[in-house]
């Protein structure tokens, strides 16, 4: 929790400076709590509730985001742990027609306090196709994934079904493939799938979902990739 508060203090002066110079620029911040921080179906918080926050910027087709979360997992065989994650995103949206658009994103994932020898920090680039605002196909590539594990690809497919102005069903399937090493639980790849429901209630965004992977239990003794229901509550504030 301390790391999240420190990050918030760092964000605050940046928000004030940017907002003072904003002309036709949109700034917002989102603060939320999740019952378990899952990254592509793998728990990053030992299945414990976690605080998360972001600072977001949009201007015409450009966007940028700083996102942070508490984490809790071992980073090496010596028992050293990561306790926070800070991600940086820059994106560009290219409309193709009234119903189709391309999204280009560059990201950097950072784990403050983790020794550089672990090679925890890494980056990736993504290209996504959105159709009718509710369907998405995306491919991400990293030339050196977490821990110096080498070249890695993530394939993502997602679909949302609006039920009303404030309620929607959503589903996604991701396949992560490391072409260099057997990084994923002794294998080069695994599949993550998730289905859930999203609800906007007053000014809060609520989500309940079931997340699971095809990782075998015998390869996952700590059950970090085991199927789980999770919930999140967040609120976005315009700046």
Describe this structure in words.
There is one protein chain. The protein has 239 residues and is mainly β. It has a single domain (2-238), classed as monomeric porin ompg (Porin, Beta Barrel), CATH 2.40.160.40. The chain is 8% helix and 57% strand. It has a 12-stranded antiparallel barrel. The two termini are 24 Å apart. The model has no long low-confidence stretch (mean pLDDT 92).
Overview features:
mainly beta; Porin; twelve-stranded antiparallel beta barrel; 1 helix; 8% helix
List the helices and strands and how they pair.
Layout: H1 2-20, E1 26-34, E2 38-39, E3 42-43, E4 50-59, E5 62-74, E6 81-95, E7 100-110, E8 122-131, E9 135-142, E10 152-162, E11 167-178, E12 189-201, E13 204-213, E14 228-238
Antiparallel strand pairs: 1-4, 1-14, 2-3, 4-5, 5-6, 6-7, 7-8, 8-9, 9-10, 10-11, 11-12, 12-13, 13-14
